[in-house]
Amino acid sequence: xxxxxxxxxxxxxxxxxxxxxxxxxxxxxxxxxxxxxxxxxxxxxxxxxxxxxxxxxxxxxxxxxxxxxxxxxxxxxxxxxxxxxxxx
Length: 88
Known about the structure:
Shape: globular
Strand order of the largest sheet: 1-2
Number of strands: 2
Order of helices and strands: HEHHHE
Number of helices: 4
Radius of gyration: 12 Å
Structural class: mainly alpha
Largest sheet: 2 strands, antiparallel
Mean pLDDT: 95
């Protein structure tokens, strides 16, 4: 799907933006076809290294959901259930 990511590009460097976009793409993939738990966990760990503030994380989730309908919070919540594949 083509859309503008809800990222404040002034807050992050190029590597961090790439990590954030990769994670948001995986959130989308969780809704479309599912994502392996290990892949999602690794991407989430990287995402958390780029987005350190919980408030910024929540803001990204909220804005991404408004644009796409895909909820990053629900994907992370499902990850914590430890099922082999995350499918929403």
